[in-house]
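User: Hello! I'm new to structural biology and keep hearing that structure can be predicted from sequence alone. Could you demonstrate with Coproporphyrinogen-III oxidase? Please show me the input and the output so I can see what each looks like.

Assistant: Of course. The first part below is the input, the amino acid sequence of Coproporphyrinogen-III oxidase. The second part is the output, the predicted structure written as tokens.
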Amino acid sequence: MSLYQEPLAWDQSVIDRYDLSGPRYTSYPTAPQFRDDFSRQQWLEAVARSNRSGKPLSLYFHIPFCDTLCFYCACNKIVTHKRSRAMPYLERVDREMALQAEVFDTDRPVSQLHWGGGTPTYISEDEMTWLMDATRRHFQLLDNDEGEYSVEVHPGRMSVGKLVHMRQLGFNRVSMGVQDFNPEVQRAVNRYNSVEQVRELVDVARDQGYQSISMDLIYGLPLQTRASVKETLDQVIDLGPDRLSLFNYAHLPHLFKSQRLIHESDLPSPQDKLAILHEAIERLQSAGYVYIGMDHFAKPDDSLVKAQQEGRLQRNFQGYSTHAECDLIAFGVSAISYYGSTYIQNAKKVEEYQTRIDEGRPALIKGVRLQPEDHLRRAVINQLICHFKLSFGQLYERFGINPNQYFRDELAQLAPMVEDGLIEVTPAGITVLNKGRLLIRRVCMVFDQYLDTGNQIRYSKVI
């Protein structure tokens, strides 16, 4: 049995020592390193590098609207019942696409497209059609169903008709934010979706030919118990999603105002939270799901599993991805792009975003161009977090360094992890052992040259 298919090892004493706070490494450098003085000229230079690369494109659209407030949510969102607010925002997104299309080589195919939020399905079917038509005017979308075109949905706020409509628009993947099926937990976080609602959507999605159905769950929510989470997991497993994410709820009410509506006394204790995770992992693996890494599971025949086994997996702002070859252009408030060796973030407040677009300016407010050292460490972290191994020979071929000498300080820091059986270090490279896979973020942190270990309040716990 390969490492990827082995059941995860759980060593409580080791977890207690290494379960610190740290980045999720959806980017490297991480967002705190993005610079406020990023200029229009730097943006244009990044676009030029992207055009010269000829890479296919990945498009992300941030649609921030929700009609109800989920108390746990840390997303950039606008909670409103005024549906009339959506179209003026979408019109700005269209103008942002036009501005980008003026400078990008848009003959490149769009291999990947994703709508996130917020709740993207907040917008009406007519508005969905309008936005997809606008996207097709500016970019070369694929019409043969070979691209990965995905959308996030709140199943409790989702109609069957809208799911059918999105399939007709070209979406072929759907991610459902289930979070928890227990009624008491749902009341505690103000998010509702029944098993029956989700089952109906799953049946329709399969009937309509959606290629992948993913579900998100959260552990550590108020009023959750080991028994209640087991019941939710049994119901989810019965629904049979192709992929499943089991996210850690990080209670940070000083950063996210909505979380102040959660009673801290209702949260599981740290010990119970870890027990919930342990039992959830065992339950999912016994049901046949493969642990991809960083909260993600998939069925053995899923493309994520195949990409991991073939060394093609990468990590980005949507999580794990099979499209490492794409340049990502992101649209909408707070959206983050990556192309031309550069991360670029849009304005975080919708008013500033819309004002910039109205003035004919790019919506960007921050960015950072990767330097040679960033590329090296980004490659190291990506290999470890996606594939649980690092070949020093490949690093030498790609970057011309002797890793044993170049990373001698980092390798010294890894020595306790070697002693604890988390990793194996040889002259040929690093292998993350079964006991270390859950703690992969902690391994990656050793190679993060920007990490300030004395100031971790903005990060969630590793587990």
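User: So the tokens describe the shape?

Assistant: Right, they're a compact way of writing down the 3D structure. Reading them back into a model, for example: The chain has two domains: 1-29+371-463, 31-329.
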